[in-house]
Amino acid sequence: MLEQYPVEIWNGGKIHRINNSVIHLMRGQVYNIDGQSFFTFGGAASHDKEYRKEGKSWWRREMPSPEEYIEGLSNLEKADWKVDYIITHTCSTKALDFIKAQLNIHMDADEMHSYFKEMEQKLDYKQWYFGHFHHNFELPNKMRLLYTDMIRIY
To answer: What 3-state DSSP class applies to 30?
Structure first.
């Protein structure tokens, strides 16, 4: 669905321009906005996809391609592994373990959690924001899980 839009460069990273006021920040990009740098990487595995309908409430492209994983690491390397803010849909394995203990839930780690764990070990950042779990709370290591909270980033 998003692939139907042409790819443009915006503030240093790739986007899909949906219309004049809506843009899709693509996976694995670093954007420079008002002197702040942002790394974005959307997507996550649906844990209830057996109840969803493909193309309506579930999409095969929910998980990144191998090329997107590689491009994300390459862009972070170009940024010398330093960004101000990280915005992702899901989190690292380390954060997942913390969330599972806090919420008393079971969820297996997948390739995205491992990918973010690898990044987390190298990255210098001010704050990491993610969602996916439908809760709001602070985690160790400058991470914050967002659901309904609205925050000022800078």
So the answer is: strand
Q: How is residue 39 written in tokens? A: 């790394």
φ, ψ of residue 34 to 5 degrees: the values are 50, 40
Q: What is the pLDDT of residues 101-129, one digit of tens each?
A: 988 888 888 888 999 999 999 999 999 99
- 15-46 pLDDT, tens digit each: 999 999 999 999 999 999 999 999 999 876 66
Structure-token match 């899980």, residue found: 145
Which pLDDT does position 46 carry in this prediction?
63
DSSP code of residue 34: T
Residue 6 in tokens: 């042409």
**Would you give the end-to-end CA distance of the chain in angstroms?**
32
